């Protein structure tokens, strides 16, 4: 075969093929030099991460330590819940098996009569409604929480009587909205009793001390406190406070299986409890 003849005959084709090979290998080298290095780094990183994933991150000792810490946290949660949980007294607790509405009506009537009579004897001005809504709640859970708020009011009024308050001008209940709506409650249930009163400084100091160290029953949780001079009498103070009626979730309510506490259920309307007071919010 005459190579010179073949070259002369196919010279353009052979030159184009040679040029294509030069361009191909040149482009390959350029791409590998710019991107190949990064690709190799990523492949190495992925291989290292996969190798790490096959290793055990935590030992049996770590697991035991985590369980121990979890138990300590649960114990602390239980202790904290017991410390802030509002426990109604016997006369204000709802008894199972009976009508919640009937218990509500009987308790409200009894407490109102007792406190108004005591306030009259001690010349303590006291709202006749005691903060109760003009129309009784309809849900059993809301009735129960209203009785607990009434329990807090009863305790404070008796402290005010013992310490010599001049007058209690305003009492308001605020039941947790989730209780009123029946929605699940996953965190702390907070019901609030707002009280505005007027008293001498010594009476105010004695009452605040009694809130922390009550003569009977457990102490009341004071959420907010505001004390200002009275505009009518220089020797008197105006005290505005909020008492918290709390119900924290139990240990089971924090678990993944429980999720949240059930809210209040609906019940029949309570009747026969009417006062001249305006509605509480």
Structure keywords:
281 residues; alpha+beta; Alpha-Beta Plaits; rod-shaped; disordered C terminus
Briefly characterize the structure.
The chain is of the alpha+beta class and 281 residues long. It has six helices and four strands.
How would you describe the overall organization of this protein?
- The chain has 281 residues and is of the alpha+beta class.
- It has a domain at 77-254: Ribosomal protein S6/Translation elongation factor EF1B (Alpha-Beta Plaits).
- Helices cover 49% and strands 14% of the residues.
- The protein has six helices and four strands; from the N terminus they run ααααβαβαββ.
- It has helices at residues 3-53, 60-84, 100-121, 140-163, 177-181, 201-212; strands spanning 167-174, 189-199, 221-229, 237-247.
- Strands 1-2-4-3 form a four-stranded antiparallel sheet.
- Strand 3 (221-229) and strand 4 (237-247) form a beta hairpin.
- It is rod-shaped.
Q: Layout of SSEs?
A:
Layout: H1 3-53, H2 60-84, H3 100-121, H4 140-163, E1 167-174, H5 177-181, E2 189-199, H6 201-212, E3 221-229, E4 237-247
Antiparallel strand pairs: 1-2, 2-4, 3-4
Largest sheet: 4 strands, antiparallel
- Count of discrete alpha- or pi-helical segments spanning 4 or more residues: 6
Q: State the low-pLDDT regions, or none.
A: 251-262, 264-281
Instruction: Give the SSE order as H and E letters.
Output: HHHHEHEHEE
Radius of gyration: 38 Å
Q: What percent of residues adopt helix (DSSP H or I)?
A: 40-55%
Structural class category = alpha+beta
CATH superfamily of the domain at 77-254: Ribosomal protein S6/Translation elongation factor EF1B
Question: Strand order across the biggest sheet?
Answer: 1-2-4-3
Beta strand %: 5-15%
CATH class of the domain at 77-254: Alpha Beta
Task: Briefly note the CATH topology name of the domain at 77-254.
Answer: Alpha-Beta Plaits
CATH architecture of the domain at 77-254: 2-Layer Sandwich
Total beta strands: 4
What is the global morphology?
rod-shaped
**What average pLDDT do the residues reach?**
80
End-to-end C-alpha gap: 110 Å
């Amino acid at each position: 075969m005459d190579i010179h003849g073949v070259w002369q005959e196919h010279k353009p084709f052979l030159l184009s093929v040679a040029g294509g090979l030069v361009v191909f290998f040149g482009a390959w080298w350029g791409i590998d030099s710019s991107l190949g290095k990064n690709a190799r780094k990523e492949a190495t990183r992925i291989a290292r991460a996969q190798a790490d994933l096959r290793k055990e991150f935590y030992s049996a000792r770590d697991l035991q330590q985590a369980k121990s810490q979890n138990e300590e946290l649960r114990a602390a949660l239980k202790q904290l819940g017991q410390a802030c949980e509002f426990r109604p007294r016997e006369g204000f607790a709802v008894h199972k098996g009976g009508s919640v509405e009937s218990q509500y009506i009987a308790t409200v009537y009894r407490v109102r009569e007792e406190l108004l009579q005591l306030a009259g004897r001690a010349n303590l001005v006291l709202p006749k409604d005691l903060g109760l809504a003009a129309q009784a709640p309809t849900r059993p859970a809301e009735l129960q929480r209203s009785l607990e708020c009434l329990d807090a009011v009863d305790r404070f009024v008796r402290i005010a009587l013992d310490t010599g308050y001049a007058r209690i001008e305003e009492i308001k209940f605020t039941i947790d909205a989730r209780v009123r709506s029946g929605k699940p409650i996953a965190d702390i249930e907070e019901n609030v009793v707002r009280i505005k009163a007027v008293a001498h400084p010594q009476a105010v100091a004695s009452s605040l001390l009694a809130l922390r160290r009550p003569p009977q029953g457990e102490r009341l949780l004071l959420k907010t406190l505001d004390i200002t001079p009275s505009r009518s009498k220089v020797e008197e103070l105006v005290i505005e406070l909020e008492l918290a009626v709390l119900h924290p979730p139990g240990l089971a309510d924090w678990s993944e299986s429980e999720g949240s506490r059930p809210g209040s259920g609906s019940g029949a309307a309570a009747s026969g409890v009417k006062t001249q007071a305006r509605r509480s919010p």
